[in-house]
Each structure stands twice: as C-alpha cells, then as structure tokens.
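hiii so um. not sure if this is the right channel but i have a protein structure encoded as tokens and i wanna go backwards to a sequence. like what aa goes where. can anyone help
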C-alpha cells in the first residue's frame, strides 16, 4: 500500500467520524488499481438526508485521472455484499480535478448515485461543511438522465420477469417479436434478454443491428451471407455471442440461402438470431430501396431454413425488435405473397404498468432527494402515458427546478402538475411528436385514426383501437393515453403539409427518422434555455462591475469592446438589453473571455469553459451530417457542464 493512499484513508476516517460510523476497512486491488474500501453506517440525520437504510460503501484512491474502473469496482463490491450495502449509492474520495463529473456520469451508467469528494491536498472538510458537501454532490446529480439502453437491475423497471420469460422461450426454439413506439424500451429489454441468455442458457446468439449502415446497405443475399459467416466464426471460436459482421457477397440468393441453412445444421445448441431496429430492412426505409422486395426474399429463405432445422431436430429461434409490425401482417407486397406473414408474431412492448411506472419514479427520485406523494406519482405517470423514457425526461426537468438546499423534499401534486405542463409546452410535446412522426412514417395507416382522436366524436374499429393501445397512443378505454400524447398529436395535426395528403407509397419513400431525433429535440430546447440564461448572466455581471468600480467603463461599453468592430458599429445604437438579445453564442463566449475575472468564480477552468462552449456551438441538430451517438452524448455532457455552473449563480 502506498503512503499517499494510507494517509488519505486515515484522513477520510477522521473526517467522516461524526457523520458515519466506519464498520469495516480494507485495502483492495482491482484491475491494477489500488483502493481503500470502507463500509460505513450513517448517522440518523445523514440516513434521512440520503434516504439510506443500509451501510454505504466509501471508496478512495489517489489517482489524478479517474477511470471508469473505479465505478465498476464499486458495482462489484455492492453486488458481492449480500445486501449489506446500499445498492444505488456510494461515496468516492479522489484527487482528480475533473473527476466529479466523470464519476457521476459513470455512476448513472451503472445505476449508481456516486457522491464524489475531491481533495487536492489530501485534507477533507469536517462536520457541517462535509455534510453540506455530501448533500450538494448527492442532490445536484440527475439520476433520471439516462440516454442509452438500460439493462442493470438498478435501472431496469417493470420488465424483469418479461425479459426472463422471453429468454426462456427463445432458448426453447420460439419465434418472438417486440414491436413498439420509439423509446418505449425495446432495445433495453433486448439487451436484458441477451444478458439472460449469456448468463443462464446454453445457446449461441447472433445480434443483427439493422440500423447500422453496413447492414441495411446489404441486399437479401448479402445479409444471409453475413449471418452465415458470423455463425461459422462463432462455431470455430467456441464463443456463444457475437454481433453480425457485415460483408458484401457476389453469391446468388439461392446459394446464400443454401449456405445459411448448412451453417445452422452445424450447431447442437439453440441458435438465436436477434434482429434490432428491423424497420431499416423493410420497405418502410426509403433510403434502402433494395429492401422493398428484398424483404420478402430474405424472410422466405429464413423461414425455409427455420423449418429445415425443425425437421432435423435442431432449435433455431428468432427475436425481431422494431417499431412497425405492418410488414409482418400484410398478405402481399406489390402483388407478391409476403413470406413473413404469420411467421413473425405481432407482439408489442407496451407502456409500463402503472404500478411499475410509479415505482420507477419513486426509486430513482430518492437518489436525488426527491420524494413524491401518491397523487404526484399518479400525475407524472398519467402525463407521460407510462412511457419510461418520457417519464425520465419529465422528471429530469422537475429535478432541475428544485433547489438543492431544501432537499430531501416531498413534492405534492399541484406543484408537480404545474411543472409538468411547463415541461410539456417547452420540450415534452416536441419529444413525443418525433416518436409519433417516426411511427406514422413506418406505419402510415395509423396516422389518420390517431389524429381523429383529437375529435371527441371519432369512431374507430376495435382492431385499430387495439393496435393504438399496444403502441400506447390510447388507454384501455380508447381515450388518448395522456397529456404528452395529446400535445404531440395536436402538433402533428397543426404541421399538416403536402406530404400528409400524398399517397402512402410516396410517404414511404423517405428515409427513416434518426434514432437520436428525440435527443436532439431536447438538446435544442436546453441550448436555447441556457443561451437566455447566459445573456442575463453576462449583462448582470457587467452591470454590477460597472456599479462597484468607479473607474470602470459602462456595462454597454465593456460588452461592445469584446466584439469585432463591424458588430460594434451595428449594435452601438441599441441599449444594453437589446444588444444582449442580438448577440450570437460565440459573441457571448468572447465577452466572458474578455472579462474572465468576473466569471472565473462561476466557470472555474477557462480551458474547460471554452471547450464545452465550443461543443455547444457545434449544434449537431443543425448540420446535414451523419450523426453518431458520441456526438449527441458529447453535446449533452457539454450542456450539463455549463448548466451545472450557471445554476449555481
């Protein structure tokens, strides 16, 4: 054990005494890293503040650059504690100047509320100062803010039994489907099923992510060939899981199908083919014309291989996940018999049961000191139509409006409902609209009946109502499922264009909506809100500086001095407020840099400020470029960094 780690462990014990009783202490190694590990029971007051009933894990290290392995080690220690430790909470003492944000982000990805305690000197605060630090770091993080698929137990609500049953049926050789509106949780449950299969069953699983460019750009023969090669690689390596390796082929469709059937015959264990984002290889994807008839060719040969395996006594399973079940329920496409009809079942992932939605809000909210009375839980679930992603986004907005100094706090229904209405107008309706637009693009037959719901006199057939209910558009009584859905339908109806009245074929000829469109709607709103806050911050600080320093120039002169001469001439005739409204983002950044001494206490690190401000200026939603998940994630982190510092003012 290093001397520095031993000294930091002793300092942590001394500082935490009074707030915690240390019940166990050790030095542990994990992936070439060295950590001190403590189990601690909080005082009654601290237990109440943190909502903790069990012991809390305290981890520490002396590295100047924190790595994700620290949080991975925390997750392992908690999982191995046999219920002794809090499952969603830990404290990490560290010496990385930028470690707080990294540790919180990694914690969210692992279903943990990480309370980071940074010390540059190895000395920690004591008593009330330490309590305030722990409370602030705990309450300012946003546990609702999860972007990617969720699979761990701490974040996976309401569908655990469903995923386990799905894995069992797939191992037994079933064909299953998982259709649903975008962001309903299809990919999350798919990843959970894959995890269940890896951990508990003797099966070989090949994952085909159809949204990948190299996958949906293939034709039917090429995709069969790619699946065949990937299966043969699995057989040769002895591994049980892989993602498809897309590769083009000059083979005829018949030869590709023959080799695919031959590859399946080489496995004794169950072979599971899991297709995600299936809409990208259907006729709905106007950006991949080869799948208009290639869809029938592909599924005709998959069905033949499946039946051949069954005759040979081998088990082959299929799992299909996507938005639209339409192409698996029509009898023909362009007069050609649809080989996928009745082969893939019409099964849906519907919104969460109301009890599961409430449990999700309650459990995640407790990680940020937010408690909700029963009526507030009901209001959130109803407003968000029990859609898990919509609930997270709405609760994230509520979280951002509650002062950290008054937490833990129990929120009542009237206050929550007011915040929900504001969220719906500013961001939620736009997010829900994107999901509906995507559904109507890949399943255009649902558009007219969905919009007719806005009229109280609409009469829909029982079949259409059942389908709309499965997508979460209507509830069990046939009424619009919630406020966000009604707002979104209203926005879609108001944006009627020429495309709304053209034939279905022309509607289908458009590329699919980006997977990240919901995120971009939220990013646009957050950036606009932040820009308004930054304008106000700049002029108020410049005014204060001008008033407190007799020798300084006016606030207007100070602002204009940071701009280019041409812009100064354009804006000189206006007053300060009007000038501020006309400033561009980069001009605001330039003013802050010019007057850094005024803003240093807010933003701290000038290099970090300019880096994050530059990322925000890049506007990933305003460029006609291929958008990667990393672009969206980086933009969201930059917004969070700036928002976190502005909110402290």
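sure thing!! here u go:
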């Amino acid at each position: 054990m290093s001397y520095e780690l031993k000294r930091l462990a002793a300092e942590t014990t001394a500082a935490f005494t009074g707030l915690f009783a240390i019940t166990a202490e050790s030095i542990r190694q994990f992936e070439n890293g060295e950590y001190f590990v403590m189990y601690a029971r909080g005082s009654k007051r601290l237990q109440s503040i943190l909502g903790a009933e069990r012991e809390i894990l305290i981890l520490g290290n002396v590295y100047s650059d924190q790595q994700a392995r620290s949080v991975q080690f925390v997750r392992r220690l908690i999982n191995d504690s046999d219920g002794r430790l809090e499952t969603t909470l830990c404290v990490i003492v560290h010496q990385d100047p930028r470690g707080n944000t990294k540790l919180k982000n990694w914690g969210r990805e692992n279903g943990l509320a990480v309370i980071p305690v940074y010390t540059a000197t190895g000395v920690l605060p004591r008593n009330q100062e330490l309590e305030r630090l722990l409370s602030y770091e705990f309450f300012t993080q946003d546990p609702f803010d999860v972007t990617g698929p969720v699979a761990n137990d701490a974040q996976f609500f309401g569908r655990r039994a469903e995923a386990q049953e799905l894995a069992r049926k797939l191992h037994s050789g079933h064909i299953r489907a998982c259709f649903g509106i975008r962001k309903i949780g299809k990919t999350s449950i798919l990843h959970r099923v894959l995890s269940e299969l890896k951990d508990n069953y003797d099966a070989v699983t090949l994952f085909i992510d159809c949204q990948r460019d190299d996958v949906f750009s293939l034709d039917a023969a090429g995709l069969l060939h790619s699946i065949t090669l990937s299966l043969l690689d699995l057989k040769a390596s002895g591994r049980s899981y892989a993602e498809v390796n897309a590769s083009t082929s000059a083979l005829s469709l018949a030869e590709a199908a023959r080799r695919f059937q031959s590859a399946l015959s080489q496995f004794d264990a169950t072979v599971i083919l899991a297709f995600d984002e299936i809409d990208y290889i259907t006729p709905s994807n106007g950006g991949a014309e080869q799948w208009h008839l290639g869809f029938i060719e592909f599924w005709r040969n998959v069905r033949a291989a499946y039946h051949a395996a069954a005759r040979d006594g081998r088990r082959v399973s299929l799992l299909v996940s996507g938005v639209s079940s339409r192409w698996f329920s029509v009898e023909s496409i362009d007069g050609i018999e649809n080989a996928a009809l009745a082969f893939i079942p019409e099964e849906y992932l519907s919104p969460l049961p109301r009890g599961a939605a409430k449990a999700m809000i309650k459990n995640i909210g407790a990680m940020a000191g937010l408690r909700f009375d029963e009526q507030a839980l009901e209001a959130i679930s109803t407003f968000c139509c029990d859609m898990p992603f919509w609930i997270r986004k709405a609760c994230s907005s509520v979280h951002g409006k509650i002062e950290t100094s008054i937490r833990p706090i129990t929120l009542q229904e009237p206050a929550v409902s007011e915040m929900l209405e504001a969220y719906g107008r500013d961001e939620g309706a736009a997010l829900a609209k994107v999901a509906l637009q995507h559904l109507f693009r890949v399943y255009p037959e649902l558009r007219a009946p969905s919009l007719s719901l806005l009229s109280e006199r609409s009469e829909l057939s029982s079949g259409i109502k059942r389908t709309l209910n499965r997508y979460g558009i209507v509830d069990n009584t046939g009424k619009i499922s919630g406020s966000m859905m009604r707002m979104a339908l209203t926005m879609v109806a108001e944006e009627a264009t020429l495309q709304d009245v053209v034939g279905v074929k022309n509607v289908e000829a458009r590329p699919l909506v980006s997977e990240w469109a919901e995120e971009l709607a939220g990013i646009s709103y957050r950036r606009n809100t932040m820009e308004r806050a930054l304008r106000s911050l700049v002029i108020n600080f410049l005014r204060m500086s001008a008033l407190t320093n007799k020798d300084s120039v006016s606030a207007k002169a100070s602002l204009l001095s940071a701009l280019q001469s041409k812009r100064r001439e354009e804006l000189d005739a206006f007053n300060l407020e009007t000038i501020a409204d006309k400033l561009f983002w980069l001009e605001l950044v330039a003013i802050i840099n010019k007057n850094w001494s005024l803003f240093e206490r807010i933003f701290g690190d000038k290099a970090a400020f300019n880096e994050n401000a530059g990322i925000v200026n890049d506007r990933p939603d305003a460029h006609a470029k291929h958008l990667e998940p990393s672009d969206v994630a980086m933009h969201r982190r930059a917004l969070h960094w700036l928002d976190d510092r502005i909110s402290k003012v």
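oh and Residues 497-509 have pLDDT under 50 and may be disordered.
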